[in-house]
User: Which sequence fits this backbone?
């Protein structure tokens, strides 16, 4: 089945009680049992909820996986993956990670004895060189946030399989419409559903998708034992968002391409980070593993004084100054003071994230209006 069709039908089963085409919001904490231990597969809503179940099935379908699990946020989903490990275990991860992921790893899990090796995963050799007998997981983001670096997912999963190591891909930036890491050998796919899956900037949620039944059992056990489950209303919103994922991702990608090229031709703009440029170092890999290049773009101004960056960021009228991404409306963000402020400055600079970098989440408005807005703001 083609992905445009999949997103519309994924997890859809008319409600058995009424035939309601959309799975209702089962706002309940418990379920009445016919006799002690005799129930309809639903006992207590931390463990099972029909709205959540429909969404988990939908997530599995759209990521070409067998099992989905959803969590109260993207970082709660990341947290669940970390709970698979024990002190002394090593995790190799991309050195250009979402700030909240880095914070969770470095400020929480290092205290529990997990060890993290941050490497540039765009060159798979760095991953090979970092594997030790204690390595248990390779964690990658591609494209990365905010520098749009690309990692070859297949190359990494090939290395991992030889070493008997798991691979988790944070697929938030691409969305399941543009990229499906399980097809390329990944063991777990993670999403911040807050972003493109929800798509309307009205919900916080995370998800994991996998193929292995044993891994699913372990992660389901963590989900119900640790309890970071989303409420049924939030599950309903993401299920609804998924229905239009294909349409939205096409619009985000089309606008993204137009704006990336326009920015690159602007005399006041210095470097533009977007994997759809043929001279982007990850272009070939991105073209092979993604359906299109999405709506995330970062850029630097030639005049990189903080005042100039602030002037531009505060001058846009359609692009709202806000963290987050992936909603229908366009957002502008300053990683150094906003989304990535939790990464120490030396660490950011070392990884190529300058204070002058501006990140755009290009929405689905008309591209000409968005370009006119950026044009008046950059001046
Ligand atoms: C936002 C984000 C997360 C964290 O998700 P939350 O829903 O905010 O907890 C993880 N990874 C990436 C790439 C993100 O953009």
Assistant:
């Amino acid at each position: 089945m083609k992905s445009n069709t999949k997103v519309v039908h994924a997890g859809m089963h008319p409600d058995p009680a009424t035939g309601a085409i959309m799975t209702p919001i089962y706002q309940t904490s418990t379920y009445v049992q016919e006799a002690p231990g005799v129930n309809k597969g639903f006992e207590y809503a931390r463990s099972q909820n029909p709205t959540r179940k429909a969404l988990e099935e939908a997530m599995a379908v759209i990521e070409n996986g067998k099992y989905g699990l959803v969590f109260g946020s993207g970082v709660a989903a990341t947290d669940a993956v970390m709970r698979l490990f024990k002190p002394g275990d090593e995790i190799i991860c991309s050195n250009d990670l979402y700030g909240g992921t880095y914070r969770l790893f470095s400020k929480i899990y290092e205290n529990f004895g997990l060890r993290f090796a941050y490497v540039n995963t765009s060159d798979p050799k760095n991953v090979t060189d970092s594997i030790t007998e204690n390595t248990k997981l390779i964690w990658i983001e591609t494209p990365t946030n905010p520098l749009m670096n690309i990692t070859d997912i297949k190359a990494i999963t090939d290395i991992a399989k030889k070493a008997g190591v798991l691979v988790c891909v944070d697929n938030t930036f691409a969305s399941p419409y543009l990229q499906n890491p399980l097809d390329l050998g990944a063991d777990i796919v993670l999403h911040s559903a807050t972003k493109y899956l929800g798509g309307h900037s009205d919900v916080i949620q995370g998800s994991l998708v996998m193929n292995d039944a044993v891994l699913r059992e372990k992660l389901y056990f963590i989900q119900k034992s640790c309890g970071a489950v989303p409420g049924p209303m939030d599950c309903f919103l993401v299920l609804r968002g998924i229905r239009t994922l294909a349409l939205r991702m096409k619009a985000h990608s089309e606008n993204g391409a137009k704006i990336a090229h326009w920015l690159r031709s602007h005399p006041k703009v210095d470097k533009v980070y977007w994997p759809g440029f043929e001279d982007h170092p990850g272009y070939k890999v991105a073209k092979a593993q993604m359906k299109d290049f999405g709506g995330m773009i970062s850029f630097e101004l030639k005049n990189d004084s903080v005042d100039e960056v602030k002037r531009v960021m505060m001058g846009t009228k359609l692009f709202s100054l806000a963290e987050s991404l992936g909603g229908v409306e366009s957002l502008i963000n300053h990683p150094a003071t906003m989304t990535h402020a939790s990464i120490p400055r030396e660490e950011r600079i070392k990884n190529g994230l300058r204070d002058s970098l501006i990140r755009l989440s290009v929405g689905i408005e008309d591209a000409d209006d968005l370009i006119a807005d950026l044009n008046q703001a950059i001046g």
Q: What stands out?
A: The pocket of pyridoxal-5'-phosphate is lined by residues 73-75, 98, 100-101, 141, 145, 170, 172-173, 192, 194-195, 204, 206 (CB under 6 Å). The domain at 3-243 is CATH 3.40.640.10 (Aspartate Aminotransferase; domain 2). The longest strand covers residues 135-141. DSSP finds 14 helices and twelve strands in the chain.
